[in-house]
Amino acid sequence: MSSKKWLLALAVAGSISAVTACSAPAGEGGNSASTQQEAPAPSGQASEGANPEAQEMPKPDTKGVPDVVAEVNGEKIAKKDFVAAYEGQFQQVAMQSQMSGQKLDQDQLKDQTVEGMISSLLLTQEADNRGLEAPKKEVDSTLDKLVKSSQLKSKDEFLAAMKDQGMDEKTVMSEIEKQVRVEALIAEESGDTKPTEDELKKAYDQAKAQQEQMKQQGGEAGELPSFEEAKPALEEQLKGQKQGEAAQALVKDLRADADVKIHL
Hints:
Blueprint: H1 2-13, H2 16-23, H3 31-38, H4 45-49, E1 68-72, E2 75-78, H5 79-100, H6 106-129, H7 136-150, H8 155-164, H9 169-190, H10 197-216, H11 227-257, E3 260-262
Antiparallel strand pairs: 1-2, 1-3
Helix pairs in contact: 1-5, 2-6, 2-11, 3-10, 5-6, 6-9, 6-11, 7-9, 9-11, 10-11
């Protein structure tokens, strides 16, 4: 059920990767965040310092959410879409909060969620304005990735799971097409994102330094692969970072000229 809710939030919100990059302040979601996720904290450290109440998984509070959460250039973000996206985000953040023992601020998370949805909608509108299309090959490839990430066995099983969550096949495919168009928009904005050798070496050195820091703090850190072995992953990481920066800049420009009303 949890994976289905996440997938529902993914489909409703559109291009989550772009939204995350756009809604996060500059500097977040870069190399350091990825490295920290791969290197777990010392065993028992979070639970020892955590408040016992924090060990209970909190529940999303969607009371008082209006029927129309926001309007972007006259296009409405409905309550049902916001709730689906919020519950998907909440599930991930609540898990992180439980592990760290930190209290989850639901008001802040709601603000972040609606801002992410506004960013996503601005990008979708701009992709439509530019007449960008979603080739069937790209749509099918994105669907295959979603099926794989959902850990479901087939496309039919994935679509059935989505239908159980209130989204029929037509709606799912429409949302995937939106995502593909947004990805094309970001690719158009970011241009050549191939990292230089110097950028790759700098990213590798940063990862190496963070690993050493984890070891000094008593954390568990696996062996870092050689630079040549890590190169493909570093290239993808830096490409994603550059695309995220381009998306952030575009959303900032679009937001400045947009008519946005938030009712949350």
